Automatic annotation (TrEMBL):
PANTHER family: ANTI-SIGMA-F FACTOR RSBW (PTHR35526:SF3), ANTI-SIGMA-F FACTOR RSBW-RELATED (PTHR35526). Residues 13-153 form the MEDS domain. InterPro entries: Anti-sigma-factor_SerPK, HATPase_C_sf, MEDS_domain, RsbA-like_anti_sig. It comes from the Bacteria. Gene3D superfamilies: Histidine kinase-like ATPase, C-terminal domain (3.30.565.10). The lineage of its organism: Bacteria, Bacillati, Actinomycetota, Actinomycetes, Streptosporangiales. This is Anti-sigma factor RsbA family regulatory protein. NCBIfam families: RsbA_anti_sig. Pfam families: MEDS.
Length: 300
């Protein structure tokens, strides 16, 4: 497993816990007020907290609502990199105060957002970023509070590759019946897309194109770089249409596949980056029995 470390010359990614709003404002406001001159000041929080921060922090504060900023982890990573490259980092160091709404997420969502926190150390490495993440010691789940030191710089920090590998050991739920099943080989992509479209619509998905593009991309990678054949299952978990693509002969080596902004010369990375942007959730499990790509697209 590759070791990944932060570029300590630039990136700062730390956290703090609080119990009262006064503690939040003291720590968060102090962090923003101590920012290097000339850089951007950014806050991602609830509307009430943002209003209090505007009063506590002198200068121009760029504010984003938590519910608008955190769509899915891959989309949040993409938005963060876009804002940084196009606006924040041109002015110097970006100082970003962030509070998520952990208590409103189920366990699967919490696991994906904890993965996101670990991935920030990889995606933002080498960028002029100071980020401070706030955790509510009274309301945030115990598992989230225990994981916070492991995904932020300081005592307890865990290498992101190791942390992500732990996230991927969580078992995936068994699909419900009935299932639509299709085996595919080289030359089957057109019929595979038609099969996916028909069954996704039958399960209630109206806007099928993002899912079709994603299934096509994953299947293409299986045919080109995997064992040359795979199996597709289409089903519903009640909240989304789910497509499982299984390559029984391929074992994934990259724990960050599709999360790191792609290099222009590595098309495989760009493909899985696009899949994670198009789908509401992508889960991957890889081992001795091959690799499972599980794609979720939310139902209306």
């Amino acid at each position: 497993m590759p070791a990944v470390r932060n570029d300590q010359r630039l990136l700062v990614h730390r956290h703090f816990s609080y119990r009262e709003e006064t503690e939040f404002l003291a720590a968060g406001g102090g962090f923003l007020r101590s920012a290097p001159p000339g850089g951007r000041l950014v806050a991602v929080a609830s509307p009430r907290r943002l209003e209090a921060l505007r009063e506590a922090v002198p200068g121009e504060l760029e504010c984003h609502r938590t519910d608008a900023w955190f769509g899915t982890p891959p989309r949040a990573l993409a938005a963060l990199m876009t804002e940084g490259r196009e606006r924040w980092w041109r002015d110097g160091v970006a100082s970003i105060l962030v509070e998520q709404r952990w208590a409103e997420r189920d366990r699967r969502e919490q696991r994906e957002w904890l993965r996101y926190e670990a991935l920030l150390n990889v995606v933002l490495a080498g960028t002029p970023t100071r980020m401070l993440c706030a955790y509510d010691a009274e309301r945030d789940p115990a598992d989230v509070l225990r994981a916070a030191p492991r995904t932020h710089q300081g005592d307890g920090y865990t290498d992101p590759a190791a942390f992500v590998a732990e996230c991927d050991r969580a078992p995936l739920p068994v699909p419900r019946e009935p299932l639509a099943v299709r085996r595919f080989h080289r030359g089957d992509l057109t019929s595979l897309r038609a099969f996916t479209d028909q069954n996704a619509r039958a399960l209630g998905l109206v806007r099928t194109m993002p899912l079709l593009v994603s299934v096509n991309e994953v299947a293409t990678n299986i045919l080109k770089h995997g064992g040359g054949a795979g199996v597709l299952y289409v089903w519903s978990d009640g909240a989304s249409v789910v497509c499982d693509l299984i390559d029984p002969a391929f074992r994934l080596a990259d724990p960050f596949l599709g999360f790191i902004p792609p290099h222009p010369d590595r098309t495989g990375e760009a493909g899985m980056w696009a899949v994670r942007q198009l789908c509401d959730l992508v889960e991957i499990r890889s081992g001795r029995d091959g690799t499972l790509f599980r794609l979720h697209q939310g139902l209306p």
